[in-house]
Amino acid sequence: MKIALPLNEKMSLYFDNPHTAPRFAIYNIEGNKENIHFSLSSIVQNPWHSIKCNDFEEEQLKCNCSDERQNSIKHKCEHYSILESIKGCTYLLAYRYCLNTKVSLKNSGITVLKVPPIIKSIDMAIKNFLIGASLASTVKHIHHAS
User: What is the SS3 assignment for 101-134?
Assistant: First the structure.
């Protein structure tokens, strides 16, 4: 399986909307339940970041676009640019993302999963994803407390 994580200019985990990230790290995850390992496959540029020359508005960075902007077909299409970088991935792990990012990737078969705010490193984000995925696959019944 391949997963993607947005990176900042210092090659660390990017904490804003991945649509605005400078690049993405693509990781391969291989193995079975008893022996899972991950490795960096490649680091790819975000073409939208290059086109915009890192000139994003604060509302785009923080996923606070107005309803009018969110519903604009032009704005929605801009989010599909991520696919040029992360095509072939199964998941995108991101600290924050907007609905347009989630929808554009979902329409292309990529699931966006939130990185918890306490996680600050790529290594821990991947390990959190792996532990969460392995635990979720073993749960048989969930009972809601009343």
Answer: HHHHHHCCCCEEEECCCCCCCHHHHHHHHHHHHH
Q: Structural domain tally of the chain? A: 1
CATH number for position 33: 3.30.420.130
Residue 45 lies in a domain: yes
Cβ contacts of 7 within 8 Å, gap of 6 or more:
13, 14, 21, 22, 23, 24, 25, 43, 122
User: Pairing relation of β-strands 111-114 and 91-94?
Assistant: parallel
pLDDT surpasses 70 at 139: no
Specify whether the CB–CB gap between 41 and 49 falls below 8 A: no
Domain containing 27 equals 2-138
pTM for this structure? 0.80
